[in-house]
Design goal:
heterodimer; A: mainly alpha; B: alpha/beta; Rossmann fold; five-stranded parallel sheet; 43% helix
């Protein structure tokens, strides 16, 4: 029984990796079409990951290895708690808190790994990523607080179940300010423009990724793939009423990701202090207004 | 085992990540190659920010002795398998700088060049063609410059040292002047 659960968990992990990499490939294709280019093949990111894992790699010590593995595995562990369509492996009582906790773990693991490489660009990148995290976690926490109070439960399964019975029952319609705030926070979580100052290639040479090469960069790409899957997945469960099966779930995820992509394609980058200021002004205000409406 | 190698080479040939070392006027040809007009991302080639992440080192144009030193550092930081593309006639025979006292003439005395792109300047079409040619070489398993560099390191190192000696400052340091006086 336990063995079967384990196999299912591995299956869900592979699913999230595949869907994440596919989304990244589609992102490159769509961005190319917006810029009137032909763009790479849709499966280009699978080719890239395969190539990266076939390359020679240099480690920068034990903390470097540990941090990168922790980054991927914590996100994969978080995906297991996510109800996606009919797949719901661990219908835990407070899965929402669990996922948020594991997500933070993953980014801290990555931060530990790359800053142990000793490259100043990586340190600047990590500092920016953590500052930005402080920026978007606050409005997102406000949103989660209002969803929590509104649904009177911390279980994602029950939150999804409470939104059943048509479009008008979705939290997107019931909690519109919260949805807007979460959308802006999602943009920051995905690291898309205008909040991509952590990996600014032109100024700090791709930030945290500066010393990663070969297998390590492969792990970085996989982490980004699972991150996309997890972050859009939470949004689908919280606001778009979950889904009845996995295909609808992935379609809804892609809609959210597509909006983020379009914003990414047309906007330039914030400076880090402006990004945090924006996060603490607009989405936080929306989130607090939503929380007040729900509480009163 | 050979099928696995073929598969690896197939994927390596379709995902070149490029580090462009832009010293000379060759840098001018790269923006049109990357952006909408010629769009090299079609072939899976994208520019990368650091040598750790890159597979191809594209050397555009002439190399002065001081920049050769930096290029060697960059090359040695890259992870194998790695390939060097010499871009323009400056890397082949010195180009218009053929009689300069401070510019190297042939790049492949100092680094193992896998492919040259002739011309002054090569057009973006020529650059795209070189990526295609390099893909063919990689798929056949013939682009082995990085192994050649390891195997013949003494020869490359001797060549590098011979020219890099000339980058030492000509004027004496102040303490050396006082000692000699």
């Amino acid at each position: 029984m336990i063995f079967l659960k384990l196999l299912e968990g591995i299956g869900v992990g592979l699913l999230s990796l595949t869907v994440g990499l596919l989304f990244m490939g589609l992102a490159r294709k769509i961005t190319a079409r917006i810029q009137r280019r032909y763009g790479p093949p849709v499966l280009q990111n699978f080719i890239d990951v395969f190539k990266l894992f076939s390359k020679q790699s240099i480690s920068h010590g034990f903390a470097f290895d540990l941090g990168l593995v922790a980054g991927v595995s914590a996100l994969l562990a978080a995906v297991v708690f996510l109800p996606m369509g009919q797949i719901n492996l661990f219908p835990h009582n407070s899965s929402l808190i669990m996922i948020i906790y594991l997500m933070t773990m993953a980014y801290l693991g990555m931060a530990m790994g790359v800053s142990s490489s000793g490259n100043p660009n990586a340190t600047i990148g990590v500092a920016r990523a953590l500052t930005m995290m402080m920026g978007y976690e606050l409005p997102f926490a406000a949103v989660i607080f209002s969803v929590y109070i509104f649904a009177k439960t911390g279980s994602l399964t029950n939150i999804v179940a409470a939104q059943g019975g048509g479009f008008l029952n979705w939290n997107m319609v019931r909690l519109p300010f919260g949805f807007l705030a979460a959308e802006i926070a999602l943009q920051g979580m995905l690291g898309e423009k205008p909040f991509d100052m952590a990996i600014a290639p032109a100024e700090i040479a791709s930030g945290p990724m500066v010393e990663l090469g070969g297998k390590y960069l492969g792990f970085g790409m996989l982490q980004h793939a699972v991150g996309i899957y997890l972050e859009t997945g939470i949004m689908v469960d919280l606001f778009l009423g979950g889904a009845s099966n996995i295909w609808i779930f992935v379609t809804k995820q892609f809609e959210l990701f597509f909006i983020a992509l379009l914003i990414n394609a047309v906007l330039p980058r914030f400076k880090i202090e402006d990004g945090v200021k924006f996060m603490w002004k607009v989405p936080l205000l929306l989130g607090v207004i939503q929380a007040l409406i729900v509480v009163l | 085992m050979s099928e696995w190698k073929d598969l690896t080479n197939f994927f390596r040939g379709r995902s070149f990540w490029m580090l462009h070392y832009c010293t000379g006027c060759g840098a001018m040809e790269l923006p049109p190659t990357m952006t909408s007009r010629w769009d090299m991302e079609r072939f899976g080639v994208i520019p990368m920010a650091t040598p750790r992440q890159a597979d191809i080192l594209l050397v555009t144009g002439y190399l002065s002795l001081k920049s050769l030193k930096r290029l060697i550092y960059t090359y040695e930081q890259m992870h194998a398998p790695k390939w060097v593309l010499g871009f323009g006639s400056c890397t082949i025979n010195g180009g218009v700088y053929w009689d300069s006292y401070n510019v190297i003439e042939r790049l492949d005395k100092y680094l193992p060049v896998d492919l040259y792109i002739a011309g002054c300047m090569p057009r973006p079409e020529a650059i795209l063609d070189s990526f295609k040619k390099l893909r063919e070489l990689v798929e056949k398993g013939e682009a082995k410059g990085y192994e050649k560099y390891v195997k013949n390191y003494e020869w490359y190192k001797a060549n590098q040292d011979r020219v890099l000696k000339r980058t030492k400052p000509v004027l004496q340091k102040p303490e050396e002047v006082t000692r000699s006086a």
